[in-house]
């Protein structure tokens, strides 16, 4: 199912999506932190983040600055809409 179809699905809620994104990002950050001490190179940075705009996909390695930007995105959406992020 494409992203557009998910957003248009009757069961879709932005709040649930933001909470799920927050929980996934938190779990991923914890896993990346635990893997950081296991290697001396960047092999622990195997996670990526994709942004799709206008049907075009942009992919980045999910490092510290990208994770911070993702957290800022989540926090901004939640704050502006009054969503409760546990």
The biggest beta sheet reads: 2 strands, antiparallel
Tell me the strand percentage band: 5-15%
- Low-pLDDT runs of 5+ residues are none
Which structural class do the helices and strands define?
alpha+beta
Specify Rg, calculated over alpha carbons.
Answer: 15 Å
Described by the principal axes of the CA atoms, the overall outline is globular
Q: Indicate the percent of residues in helices.
A: 40-55%
How many domains in all?
1
Q: How far apart are the first and last residues' alpha carbons, in Å?
A: 28 Å
Mean pLDDT: 84
What is the chain-wise order of helices and strands?
Answer: HHEEH
Total beta-strand segments:
2
Write a brief caption for the model:
The protein is α+β, with helices and mostly antiparallel strands and 86 residues long. Helices cover 55% and strands 14% of the residues. The chain has one domain (15-81).
Write the layout of secondary structure elements.
Elements lengths: L2 H6 L5 H23 L11 E6 L2 E6 L2 H18 L5
Antiparallel strand pairs: 1-2
